[in-house]
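Morning, I've got a small favour to ask if you have a moment. I've dropped the whole record in just underneath, so have a look.
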Amino acid sequence: MIAAGRSLALIAASAGFLSTTALPAFAGAFGLREQSAEGQGASFAGVAAGGGGLSSMFWNPATMTDYPGITSSYVGSAIFPNGSIRPNPLTPTAIFGSSNGSILDGGLASSYGAYQFNDQLWIGYSFNTPFGLQSKPGFAWAGQVYGRSARIVSYDAAPSVAYKINDWISIAAGLQVEYFKARLSQALGVLPTSPSAILEGDDTSVGYTLGATLKPTPWTEVGLGFRSSVHEDVGGSLTTPAGALPVKAKINLPEELTLGVRQKIDAQWTLLGGFEWTNWSRLGIVPVTSSGIPVSEVPFKYKDGYFASLGAEYSWSPAITLRAGVAYERSPIDISNREVLLPDANRIWASIGASYRYSEKLSFDLGYSHGFVAKDNIAVVPGHPQFPTVGLPFIASVKNARFDIVSASLTYRWDNPVETIPVTQPIIRKP
């Protein structure tokens, strides 16, 4: 399901009135990172090397070879964002007020499955929401010409195949089939009673995933995963009081490369590390057309996003594992392109989590993260990519920006695990 309170791109255009917008996702720009409760508890450190359990398949499908038999995992996350936009008193529309709590609470769910076909071949699947947002700054407020409401949903189904070359190396590849839908509403004027222009559209397109894991020693695992760009040809309508106009826009959702490391120190401690690059800079200027004629453009002008994380796991007992992690995320959004529906900024993650192995077949995971978002401002002024679409300056500060995320998951092995019988002396058969 869609995670309300995360950011996604909303393509918007209307000859001289409507501009493009997107909303802040706590994974940078409009991505959704909350795909793993186990990974959540360590700020996603090491997820590409299996640090997220079976849900590591989202970042690296080769990690499924760590799971023998037939295994499924189900993940749910609740997201609680906070923040407000306070217009500068000198902003022309400041008299119409602030946006308080515009980013809505929400949640998302994902699921994973892996089937070991033989000693070397695995097949698997994942269902995710890689992008999403739901925001409602308000119908009448100072920034309404740049955004009244926004909603995005995306659903991604990814079948994959993994091959275990030997005990050291596994490789995998998969297909992404992604449905994308967006709806944006913003005012056609500055007065509170101004009508809205509504842009909405959807598309289904495909991409791919690749992954590999390397185990140079029994205590070390390194993973590298890649999620390709998905090219969406969004078709829909732009509705104003004058009627509905059919429109199209092509948006290339960014590819992502993730490196993960898991290093066991002893029987109890495991260190985790991760680094992620997201090619947000491919979102530059997106033309919007009607019957082949340009009617506007979507000036994202994002920069690349980066996410670096460190964490650790402690095996408290055979049944209980504790974990924690921190991360620093550099957002693709800064003062040069920040807007009212996307007041994104750099942030620090701090997370804790735990796993409980109820039996050989069933386990549970819980993760919690708090995000400290850097203080920053919005300055839609000459030079800002969104300013030409409206021509009205908007300067504001983003106050009390932070977020809390809680994730939980259940992992179940459907077949019967083979029990190893310890042998302490040779078995002698009598004739």
